[in-house]
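Quiz preparation item.
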């Protein structure tokens, strides 16, 4: 499902001494079935932007169009929009509340008015997509699981509603490296299986680089750059001025180039790709 945002502005506490401009004249278009990564320092407007995409926040001005529906228009049925646009907040495991994993994942589909048979089917499917075996986890209390497993259950609850747009705010925040890698692979698997548009925020630049088709850079409430991972992370100096880092492998190649060890400025996002680029240039010099 495509998303079109035009001149979106959001001001918190307007008309008071605490007035704060969180978004300022933000415009962009996202294509159906894209994976979009959003980066920016804390306070740059990322989370505020996400909450406009399913109508949780009301725009001060501007428009948001999801598919054929302008969700900022008066009297738009937002309940329907929130069924089509699923939002997973940061640390979603804190929102688990049912006595079993299966009941927690089933909560959303049941509220959609689906039959028990269809709900059960979706619960099984969603748990499989997040990498949890139904027979092993369905009847367990979600509060007995590890942090990474809890997060998967919470994400499964949104996936079970089959949103056409899946939004994840910092899906790997606070996880150890193994759990982080598992969640990134899970997001990729869900996207490929469901064919949805996926939007996610992360401070981990390698996750953004390897997973995204498009990267958006937020700074002081403005969208300052949008492009492919290679296009965005090639602008190293601009990102550094905004307090943003490069993926470690990209930064390593940049340093080698500055020190004169490489002839070309290259962009790679994984250690394997960076090693391959170094080897390619060394072999060419022989």
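Solution:
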């Amino acid at each position: 499902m495509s998303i079109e945002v035009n001149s979106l502005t959001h001001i918190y506490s307007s008309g008071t001494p605490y007035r704060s401009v969180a978004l300022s004249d933000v415009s962009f278009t996202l294509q159906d079935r894209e994976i979009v990564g959003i980066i920016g320092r804390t306070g740059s407007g990322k989370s505020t932007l996400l909450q406009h995409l399913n109508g949780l926040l009301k725009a001060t001005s501007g428009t948001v169009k999801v598919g054929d529906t302008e969700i900022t228009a008066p009297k738009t049925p937002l309940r329907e929009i929130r069924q089509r646009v699923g939002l997973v907040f940061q640390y979603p495991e804190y929102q688990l509340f049912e006595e079993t994993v299966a009941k927690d994942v089933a909560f959303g589909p049941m509220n959609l008015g689906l039959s028990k048979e269809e709900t059960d089917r979706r619960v099984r499917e969603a748990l499989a997509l997040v990498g949890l075996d139904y027979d092993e986890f369905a009847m367990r209390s979600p509060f007995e699981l590890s942090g990474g497993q809890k997060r998967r259950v919470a994400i499964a609850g949104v996936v079970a509603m089959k949103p056409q747009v899946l939004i994840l705010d910092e899906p790997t925040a606070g996880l150890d490296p193994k759990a982080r890698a598992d969640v990134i692979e899970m997001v990729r698997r869900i996207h490929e299986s469901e064919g949805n548009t996926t939007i996610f925020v992360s401070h981990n630049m390698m996750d953004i680089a390897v997973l995204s088709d498009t990267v958006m850079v937020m700074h002081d409430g403005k969208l300052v750059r949008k492009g492919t991972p290679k296009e965005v992370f090639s602008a190293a100096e601009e990102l550094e001025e905004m307090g943003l880092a490069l993926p470690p492998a990209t930064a390593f190649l940049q340093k080698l180039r500055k020190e004169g060890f490489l002839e070309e400025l290259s962009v790679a996002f994984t250690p394997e790709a960076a090693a391959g680029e170094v080897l390619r240039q060394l072999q060419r010099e022989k």
